[in-house]
Amino acid sequence: MHRLWMIFAQTVTVSVAILFVVSTLRPDWIGERKTPPAVTIQEAVAPGSVPATNAPSSYADAAQAALPAVVHIFTSKEVKTQRHPFADDPLFRHFFGDRLDNRPQQRASGLGSGVIVSSAGYVLTNNHVIEGADDIEVALNDGRKLSARIVGRDPESDLAVLQIKSDGKLPAITFGHPEQLRVGDVVLAIGNPFGVGQTVTMGIVSALGRTHLGINTFEDFIQTDAAINPGNSGGALIDAGGHLIGVNSAIYSRTGGSLGIGFAIPVSLARNVMEQIIQNGSVTRGWIGVEVQAITGELAESFGLPSSDGTLISGVMRGSPADRAGIQPGDILLAVDGRKVTDPQSMLEAIAALQPGRKADFELRRGKDMMGLKVEIARRPALSRGD
């Protein structure tokens, strides 16, 4: 029995050795080995995750579509020279006469950018680019230089409209849809930074609806990290399709250069202002004549308010629409014509959107009582600080 067991063990050992040698040197003798199926990229994506999309490798088409409509704006204005302190002294004038009064006036120059928005030659830019200028020249992308006239300005939104005349065809940019804009979308900024020439920079939309920045009276900025520098003001912010979605307006900077925080006026606001300026020469907004204050937690507690919703009427101008309607200091404004008021900025925008001459419903809280008043809206005075 022992001998049989030894023969069996030796046979198994030799068989295993032969099988190992054959599988290593001639695996085809054994048969084709099946390999596990390859895992595709789509199969490797975890359930519920978003598969990667192919981003465009170039935005040249978008830039080429918008570049011809973006212009450089050069301005100049006369600056009064300071009068010599001894100019009125009789003894001084005896020796020097009127020579000090006949000194040539100095001229200050400035630069910025603009966007041709119509084949009729209308150019949209920032008000601060052309403010105070008595001579404005527009340089087109094709090298033409044309004189421009001011159609109208709106300092409260920092927008202005110019017009240029040309014998040739003027390129015009196409408007985009900023309401479809999302944080993270790719945008391009086009302008003339530091006067070096037309420049395109790329970034993304960092935030939407930026307000309370203290830049303009009416604010609803698109924030972007696309490089915007001095000279870019009034230039175009475009989407990946080359459509205008904003007018570059301001930057946050401690050095004067780009720190990755730039602000553009959305084209929806810019277009509304532009159309009013072209039609009427100015922008018409509603006004009732009140001073307002934000309701903090401390104020809400001191007034015994259930929440900090609304805005506090801190002052009423005598003889204003608010005064005639019976609004008093200390009232809490909660809604304007059905539009909820959450802070002073929302109240300002709600009233400004109303047509002068019409009566609007105002919802207020006076003490513990709720009340409604009808207020006849007046036209907002130029650069009014109240609402």
Automatic annotation (TrEMBL):
A GO biological process held by the record: proteolysis
Main location: periplasm
Listed GO CC annotations: periplasmic space
Binding site for substrate: H128, D158, G231, N232, S233
Protein location: Periplasm
Active site: H128, D158, S233
Family per similarity comment: Belongs to the peptidase S1C family.
Protein name (database record): DegQ protease
Phylogenetic placement of the source organism: Bacteria, Pseudomonadati, Pseudomonadota, Betaproteobacteria, Rhodocyclales
